[in-house]
Amino acid sequence: AFPRKYFVIYSLHSYYYIEGGKTPSERNIMAIFTNQAQLSYGDVTTSSNVAVGEILEALSISKTAIPSTYTTGDSIAYVINIVNSSSTPITGLSVSDDLGAYQFNETSLVPLTYVDDSAKYFINGVLQPSVDVNVGTEIVFSGIDVPANGNVAIVYSTTVNDFAPVSIDGFITNTVRATGAGITPIEASETIYASA
């Protein structure tokens, strides 16, 4: 038989905090949890202090353009870096780049053109034999594997085409997004500016 005096501990709350922003890509959605223990001993009950924590994503992504300025016809190289800070490999990712697509009136214009066969795929700095590339109005790299506590780099070239804004205040912002089973999609953007 159990003694009459015993204790019970349980957690109370978890919720999401959404940081304000103008667009969904400008918001940071963080999983925040609070935990409070309640101790019962006989007829006396007391509560502990409240602990607050944040659940961090295992994957991070960044994107860099070289060079950072352009005119029509220029070549722009992009480097996508994905870092896995967990002890579990993450496999089968799909990584898409929108090639700077933007709306003009009711038409979607794409100011960058992917250079065929330019993509290089590195795992922990080691060049891989190939990467699956599907090119349409965006580029999609599929079958991307990121090792535990490792990183991946995808390097590719684009050409600035006639849809690129070339006025003094012109710019191209393109966004890369990584998706896959069991992960929260992650994205990063890079902006290049028309040469003066």
Kindly report how far apart the N and C termini lie: 84 Å
Structural class: mainly beta
Mean pLDDT: 82
Q: Percentage of helical residues?
A: under 10%
How many strands, which pairing sense, and closed or not: the largest β-sheet?
6 strands, antiparallel
Residue windows where pLDDT falls under 50 for at least 5 positions: 1-31
Shape descriptor: elongated
Query: C-alpha Rg, in Å?
Result: 24 Å
Question: Which helices and strands, and how do they pair?
Answer:
Blueprint (H helix, E strand, L loop, with lengths): L12 E6 L10 E13 L2 E12 L3 E8 L2 E2 L4 E10 L5 E8 L4 E3 L2 E3 L2 E3 L5 E4 L2 E2 L4 E4 L3 E8 L4 E10 L10 E9 L6 E9 L2
Task: Give an overview of the whole structure.
The protein is mainly β. The protein is about 0% helix and about 60% strand. It is built from no helices and 17 strands. The protein has strands at about 15-20, 30-40, 45-55, 60-65, 70, 75-85, 90-95, 100-105, 105-110, 110-115, 120-125, 125, 130-135, 140-145, 150-160, 170-180, 185-195. The strands form four sheets. Strands 4, 6, 10, 11, 12 and 15 form a six-stranded antiparallel β-sheet that branches. The chain has a six-stranded mixed β-sheet with strand order 5-17-16-7-14-13, with no helix packed on it. Residues about 1-30 have low confidence and may be disordered.
List keywords for this structure.
six-stranded antiparallel β-sheet; 17 strands; disordered N terminus; mainly beta; elongated
Summarize, please.
Helices cover 0% and strands 58% of the residues. It has no helices and 17 strands. Mean pLDDT is 82; it is low at 1-31.
